[in-house]
Amino acid sequence: MLRPMSLIVTGTIGIDTIQTPDGQEREGVLGGSGVYFAAAASFFAPTRLVAVVGEDWPDEHRAALATFAGVDASGLETRAGSKTFRWGGRYQDNMDHRDTLFTELGVLEEAPPTVPENFRDSSIVFLANGHPATQGAFLDQLPGCKLSVVDTMDLWIDIAKPDLETLLGRVDGLVLNYDEAEKFTGRRNTITAGKKLLEYGPRFVVIKKGEHGAILVHRDGVSALPAYPAEVVVDPTGAGDSFAGGMLGYIAAHEVDGDPGAFEVIHRAMAYGTVIASFNIDAFTLERVLTLTSEEIEARLAEFKRMVRVE
Amino acid sequence: MLRPMSLIVTGTIGIDTIQTPDGQEREGVLGGSGVYFAAAASFFAPTRLVAVVGEDWPDEHRAALATFAGVDASGLETRAGSKTFRWGGRYQDNMDHRDTLFTELGVLEEAPPTVPENFRDSSIVFLANGHPATQGAFLDQLPGCKLSVVDTMDLWIDIAKPDLETLLGRVDGLVLNYDEAEKFTGRRNTITAGKKLLEYGPRFVVIKKGEHGAILVHRDGVSALPAYPAEVVVDPTGAGDSFAGGMLGYIAAHEVDGDPGAFEVIHRAMAYGTVIASFNIDAFTLERVLTLTSEEIEARLAEFKRMVRVE
Lengths: 311, 311
What we know:
nine-stranded mixed beta sheet; homodimer; alpha/beta
């Protein structure tokens, strides 16, 4: 196999508190979009993580992150006198929706991290959920970018839509949830919403529907995949970022010679994202992913491919 | 190709009134579960329709049904002095839910139709939504049945659950909606709900999720398919019955020598159902299906197979 393309992500590192409907709780666990993405992607390709934590970031979280050999955390800034981002959420009975219990922004209210000099040649870029202006400023520091994909959330659609629209004119792909696509476009039909989003400039939009799978709306076509049929959903936190990590990790590893944003590539990448996300939801926080092996991923991927195939 | 297996359906024939969120209305149009199923199935295999109408059934509905050359309507009873079943529904904005405007049961309150003597050798049987005791009595008249599939709805789960449980012990397959599976089992997770339903006896359960596709929970495995990504949804009425019609029509035509209830067969059949349902929702009532050609079905089927395939 060829040497993978360099993959970089910027996102949050969080200290999370998670409550599930069965009364279980995990307090002060490792979380954040950057962590979930990087952990998932690292199964396929070395992944550069750029993020900021405060001086309260626990040593055991640093150690847990270090168990992912493929994650290059040298771009992780520990900021003196600052506090790590903290988030608490409680899932509703159906696991589809969650209520935010508290948010302590900490370092997220301060200056964003900068891209270390030795990361500026990165080819594949994922901008995890964040303010679209900050996401854009991060992209400015990556002149070697060949494929850029951005995630967003309802907050930015509410308070920074013009910035988001500008950013969409600069990136190759957008990954967002079903209800966010509707909120952004006012179109409930997923395909119509996706096509509307393409008008802002990206080459493709991946619309995530959780347990109902994902839809790809690409300039060159439309496709859909179901989710892996999971009987046990312990904690959906980070499923979307794991999904994106699996997608871009696959692309970085396997599409070195090709067009990393081609319709067929993104479709295939969605299957990898689906499989990683299916492991992620199987236990609290990163617990399942921490023990995951490449063999387990390959086995489930083969099962998933067989499952959706129609002869 | 071998001669298709004989396929029979019993279900309603309705005079429908349908309102869509954009203010359009169709009054007094051809509808009913038996009609939608038979029309869809008839693209693949001759389909015997057993149902009752009143003497008010319009000649133009009889003529429309007759345009489906594959539908054998000789088992259609026109009952003197009785009224045809009438139903009116209004779709909500999101097209996911509908409100019933009125229901005039008419012949549905009277004796059910009996199976004509020359239909008693039927191999593949679909019992469209109806009282489970009546569905069971219909099945009693079909000693040559090789594959029986039943549909149901929330009404029967509410008022006739014991009858429904008994019926599930006699049939090979159950087809029902997402929310009905949850209502029946109290399990929200689709796979868990499907496995619970298998405990009543059927070999497989197909759980329909509308725009989110379908899940197969079979004694021999689990699979999932997305819906065909439709940008235009004019009228979802009958989509579920068309889906079942496409499934069983395919099985009757293609699985003559095999095991018609095998996991791989039902999975493949779901793709045929998905494609027929995607045409059905494209226009009011049966308007689109009335002009549908085998070439259009084959083309969309090929597109759908390519779309879900992961290389």
